[in-house]
Amino acid sequence: RAREGFKDGNTERAPGDRWMIYGPGDYVPPVEVEIIEKRRAIPLDENEGIYVRDMKTGRVRAVTGSVYMLTSYEELWDKELPPVVEDLLQTDADQSSGIKHSSTSGPRVKSRLVTYRIPHNSAVQIYDYKAKKARVTFGPDLIMLGPDEQFTVLNLSGNTPKTPKVLNVLALLLGPRFSTDVVIVETSDHARLSLKLSYNWFFDIDKKNQEQAALLFSVPDFIGDFCKAIASRVRGSVASQSFDHFHKYSADLIRKAVFGADEAGNIRNRFHFKSNNLIITNIDIQSVEPVDQRTRDALQKSVQLAIEITTKSQEATARHEAERREQEAKGRLERQKIDDEAEAEKARKNLLSLQAASAAVESTGTASAEAKARAEAAKIEGESNVTNAKLKAEAQSTKASVQLKILQNEQQTEISHKKAWNTLEIKKADELAGIEASKFKSIVDAIGAETLKKISQAGPEMQAKLLSGLGLKSFMITDGNHPINLFSTAAGLIGSNLSQ
Predict the structure, then answer these.
(1) How far apart are CA 242 and CA 186, in angstroms?
(2) Distances from the Cα of 122 to the Cαs of 39, 139, 322, in angstroms?
(3) Using CA atoms, how far apart are residues 457 and 272, in angstroms rounded to an integer?
(4) Taking the CB of residue 52, how many other CB atoms lie within 10 A of it?
């Protein structure tokens, strides 16, 4: 920084000017120059950062994920956080158990970027005071605070019974979780009781909807809020019940008081807080104890009396059951005796019936044997007659079959003889016809074509003489233009010769 104006080489330096000299190199400052500080480049990972303030404009920004060297008019800016946030960043707290997990990272460097690892199934709200806007981030995730952003701290009720502002948390667990509370109630007969109740709860939200996510932090102490709401419902329901009735039906009465019932009278299974979408799913009654000592003594006496009455009732029931079983056994024994006597009478009756039947059989045995013998003889005679008739019929049938077979053989032989004779006759006729045809052909060949021509040109008488000289009895001459059927003529000639 220049203490007074001077000329630095070709640059005019005014008083108060600031500049950087980057290494490596040696620098000997003149009298007019004051060395403010020596700076080094700051290496930053993608999850690390620093807050940098511009000294001219006063604007603060966050630098992350690179190696950064401050300029001459920039400086590191310390981000201040509330003490409760500083404590929660060092030790994260579970709002239901109060157990703190110590951190070994050491004190926070205020110029370093504030980061927070959001646990699984939890939500953190961050408010930007410059943009006047809040955003909700769900875990698991890593949050890096901007220069103008702050965490929203929830002050939750803790301990049993619930005490306000016991737990301070940054991350709101979404559940399912459970919380335990002690509620003092008074029945209609002025019996004061201490109920230890455990509630199962979770937040029913859409993580992609920022409007629903903002409702999570609309109730700063949601544990104390829903414990008070449930306690008021339980006290109102128990106040209208007697001690004996509540002692018998405590679970149903409490569940109906908290969850309500539908049109059919069935108890619902959830209690919905619309302000932050909190759902109560179950209520467990861990203990019911009288607050007043006299009520506690009276309850103990009533319990002992109830135990004695139950014991005596069980003894009377057992004695009555034993007497009943004894009477039933006696009745079964008497009935068995009667049944045995009836069976004996039935057996005696059967014996007499068998004796009468044997006497009847003995008296009728001879007559029956004779009648059976005559019937058997008649049966044998009839069967022998039938057998003879069958044999005669078979003999007649055999004789007729043999005769028929002989007749068939004779007819077959005669037919075969006729067929052979006809075959020979046909063969003889064919051979004669062939001989005549050969004879005719030989005569024609001997005469010659010229002779036949001359014969056809001569007169009829000459023809007759010539033919008679040739030994021909008959002939037929055609000009060849009119065909003549010689088959029938030959057949007629052959037939006339056969007849002669």
Answers:
(1) 9
(2) 40, 5, 65
(3) 150
(4) 20
Question: How many Cα atoms sit within 13 Å of 42 on the Cβ side?
Answer: 21
- 181 in Cβ contact with 162 (< 8 Å): yes
Distance CA 71, CA 52 (A): 10
Q: What pLDDT is recorded for position 303?
A: 74
* Amino acid 469: pLDDT: 65
Torsion, Cα 128 129 132 133, to 10 degrees, reads 20
Q: Match 């539908």 to its residue by tokens.
A: 262
- pLDDT given at position 249: 87
**Dihedral sign, CA of 335, 337, 343, 348?**
negative
pLDDT at 97: 42
Copy the structure tokens of residue 351: 């014996």
Alpha-carbon distance of 52 to 79, in angstroms, equals 10
Q: If we measure between CA atoms, which residue out of 24, 15, 62, 12 comes closest to residue 42?
A: 62
Q: Which of these, 216, 208, 209, 226, lies nearest to 270 by C-alpha position?
A: 226
H/E segment holding residue 426? helix 293-447
Taking 70 as the pLDDT cut, the residues of the chain under it are 92-106, 455-500
CA angle 472, 474, 477 (to 5 degrees): 105
Do 151 and 133 touch, CB atoms closer than 8 A?
no
> b/e per residue, 433-465, with b = 16+ CB within 10 A?
eeeeeeeeeeeeeeeeeeeeeebeeeeeeebee
Cα–Cα distance for residue pair 180/232, rounded to 1 Å: 15
Token pair of 102 as six digits: 């110590």
Neighbouring C-alpha atoms within 13 Å toward the C-beta of 40:
3
CB contact at 8 A, 138 and 210:
no
Measured over the CA atoms of residue 422, residue 423, residue 424 and residue 426, the dihedral's sign is positive
Please tell me the distance from the alpha carbon of residue 138 to that of residue 64, in angstroms, as a whole number.
22
**Radius of gyration for the alpha carbons in the chain, expressed in angstroms and rounded:** 70
d(CA 482, CA 377): 100
